[in-house]
Amino acid sequence: MCFVIIIEHIFCQDRTGLFSSMTSLRQRKGSKGKDPGPIILLSLLSPGGFSWWTVLCVMTGSTVGISLGLLCCIYVATLHENDLWFSNIKEVEREISFRTECGLYYSYYKQMLKAPSIQQGLYELIHDNTTESKRTINILQRMNIYQEVFLSILYRILPIQTYLEPIYFYIYTVFALQTVYVIALFITSWLLSDSWLAGALSGVWYILNRVDTTRVEFTISLRENWSIPFFALQVAAITCYLRPQLKPIHQRVVLWLVFVSTFCFCLTWQFNQFVLLVQALIIFTLDCLDFLTTEQVVSLYLMQVFSLLLVWLLQFCNSMILGSLVLSFIVSALFIKHFQTGLKTGGFVIRVGKLALHTLLVLTLTFTINYSAKKILQLKSDEHIFKFIKAKFGFGATRDFDASLYLCEEAFGLLPLDTFERLAGTVLWYYVLITNGSGQASREKEDRTFKMRPDVAYNLLHTVFFGLLAFSTMRMKYLWTGHMCPFAAFGVCGKEVWSLYLRVLHCNTKTMQSHALPPSQLLMEEISELREFYDPDTVELMEWIRLKTPKRAVFAGSMQLLAGIKLCTGRVLTNHPHYEDQALRERTRQVYQIYARQSAEEVHKVLCSVGADYIVLEDSICYERRHSRGCRLRDLLDLANGHIMDGPGENEPDLIPATHPRFCEAIKTDMPPYSTLFTRVFKNKTFHVYKLKKLKKKNKAENGP
Asked: Transmembrane segments in this chain: where (predicted)?
């Protein structure tokens, strides 16, 4: 970091005359509609007598950016190997390491590779009857797994099968996307500051703050690890598109890049609509503040719409996309904008009143269109998300099982304060504060009016809006912390704030080294720390299921465990972690009665209705201690059923004592009626597997015709 600061300071001094020449050249060419000549990748290079410097900077910056991206890729791959000793464990252990929904997504990649042909594999995904028992669903419609389909096809056609295992091809692809991510951050910072050294600093910060910028090394196949790199590319493309005096042909090229990156982002993550909604609100705000032209606003909105509609087609007309808030908002914003003329005219008070009315009209029309669309489409797939949001801010029922599942997870809680301590440890947080403060001070010093480039304004609002989202929901922090790196680097290395920054921070070599050394030491310690995957109970369970149960056997249990059972054994499931379906959520709540206070007869009836042959009970859930009282799974079930919770503590007055013991505990007594309806067939320290007795068929056989 010290090296970057010193070199940038030298370059800023050496290029003073060059910057002056470039400024005058921009002024001379601006009247002719020429490109101003910023150092931009993507072939947006300026003509002129200093082309040798431009070429040198682009070549050097590109080399540094690619090198940092590859370094990040190798870094996370090394952490993954060192944490699990992935290269030396059995295949079943490798697959078990894909925890929760990660295992579900990877199972479809494995399923495609096992299919006799690509056509047969696609047919099995479109007519899937193993993910949800007694149902045939279209996986390509329900889930965002086109990346698994693409990788499986690519693995089949490339001549790599002899020296690269399928699982390595998969994880290396995900790690390679981190290269794309870092390069995108590099480009964004370069475009903002006109200095590739800012890009280098953003890449270094991203790597040093890995704990808060990514979790790819232990959640490889999570949808966000596929999509966020494309989102970063989209932000880089938008930053380029909003640069002043960009040539029309360059604008069209960049818009295509915006469309392609937005499409890839939407195709790979089911929560794309909510992220794009935040981005649409940013565009709307910039439009209201007169930072963007009408053409820019309409173009960016349309890129979002076209991307979502193309994904809608590829996902077999998934109604969740048509009923999304972002589509309703964009339609409303464009409609009101078209008819409400003279919005940005008049005095300050009149303009504020017009903008307030404009915003009110857009929001009213948005909710009207969205409500109507959901009624027409009978859409309930995403209602659990809105239940969670309402309950989180105190507007919804706190006993709703689906909302409580999210509310009780740490990932969906508020952003912990120790996040800022870690960011401050790499001086990233300080730099963000100094950037904002110094930028404002420099503007006030130059003149008393507020001026900001559109690309800078977009990235500032991007940081603010997604920062608020991260504060409210910790899982969304990865959309914010990654973007903090290029924006903070822009403030540090941007020539307009550089001299003031040095005075504010009183920067010197010793100070910078004292800040940079601890993160570097932590990075080296992480790389040198060696662990090994160890989960013998789960391995034993998977091996028993694979060897001792029929291939079409149906298993019931927790969502997280069943995803692993599908991946490791290929057995049929009653439920799974992909929660974006109302019928599945209801089925999950019913299956989870195995951890509630219900009679043996009622549980048996529920399990038979979903076609279960076996149930897997986990002691870690039945006797859970990870969550506090009120957030344990058994507590959520008791509250949803109107029962008093376990243990000491207060209960709401309308709750009543349950008339039956907790099923997961009582079944272990092996006493009637449990022994009449269930037979234990497997047990270890963690899991208990019971087989359901089909009493109805048995009684019919005994009674005879």
From this structure: 50-77, 167-192, 226-242, 254-286, 306-336, 348-369, 456-474
What pLDDT digit, counting tens, does each position of 186-209 carry? 999 999 988 898 999 999 999 999
Q: Which residues are CB-contacts of 228 (< 8 A; sequence separation ≥ 6)? A: 181, 214, 265, 478, 479, 482
Q: Output the furthest CA–CA distance in the chain (Å, rounded).
A: 102
Q: Report whether pLDDT(397) > 90.
A: no
Q: Side-chain half-sphere of 86: how many Cα atoms within 13 Å?
A: 21
Extract the tokens encoding 403. 């909302």
Name, in order, each residue with C-beta under 8 angstroms of 85's C-beta and a sequence gap of 6 or more: 530, 531, 532, 533
CA 393 from chain centre, in angstroms, equals: 22
The pLDDT value given to residue 553: 97
> Is the backbone of residue 655 left (phi > 0), alpha (psi -120 to 50) or beta?
beta
Crossing angle of helices 325-339 and 348-377, in 10° steps, is: 140
User: Rg of the chain's alpha carbons, rounded to an integer?
Assistant: 28
Q: What is the per-residue pLDDT for 205?
A: 92
109 vs 171: CA distance, rounded Å: 12
Burial class (CB in 10 A: 0-12, 13-18, 19+), 153: middle
- Tell me whether strands 572-573 and 614-618 are parallel, antiparallel or unpaired: unpaired
Contact present, 125 and 140 (Cβ < 8 Å): yes
Q: Is the dihedral of CA 316, 319, 324, 326 positive or negative?
A: positive
Q: Which residues contact 395 (CB under 8 A, 6 or more apart)?
A: none
User: If you count DSSP H runs as helices and E runs as strands, how many of each does the chain have, helices first?
Assistant: 35, 5
Question: 320: closest CA among 380, 408, 246?
Answer: 380
Locus of tokens 């299919």? 115
58 close to 45: Cβ distance less than 8 angstroms: yes
Q: Which two three-digit tokens encode residue 373?
A: 């669309």
What DSSP string describes 498-551? HHHHHHHHT--HHHHHHHHHHHHHHHHHHHH-------HHHHHHHHHHHHHS-T
Rounded CA-CA distance 231/254 in Å is 15
For residue 621 the two structure tokens come to 């859930």
Q: Which residue has the higher pLDDT, 25 or 179?
A: 179
Q: E strands of 569-612, at which residues?
A: 572-573
How far, CA to CA in Å, does 91 sit from each of 168, 169, 549, 568?
11, 14, 20, 9
Polymer length in residues for the chain? 705
DSSP 128-194: B-SSSTT--B-HHHHS--HHHHHHHHHHHHSTTTTTS-HHHHHHHHHHHHHHHHHHHHHHHHHHHHT
Grouping H, G, I as helix, E, B as strand and the rest as coil, residue 135 is coil
List helix spans (H) across 344-393: 348-377, 383-392
> pLDDT tens for residues 622-646?
999 888 888 999 999 999 999 999 8
Other C-beta atoms closer than 10 Å to the C-beta of 444 total 11
State both tokens at 432. 């963000």
In this structure, are strands 687-692 and 572-573 parallel, antiparallel, or unpaired?
unpaired
SS3 for 658?
Answer: coil
pTM of the model: 0.88
Lookup result for tokens 């608020």: 468
The pair of structure tokens assigned to 75 is 């870094």
Give the position of tokens 């940081």.
463
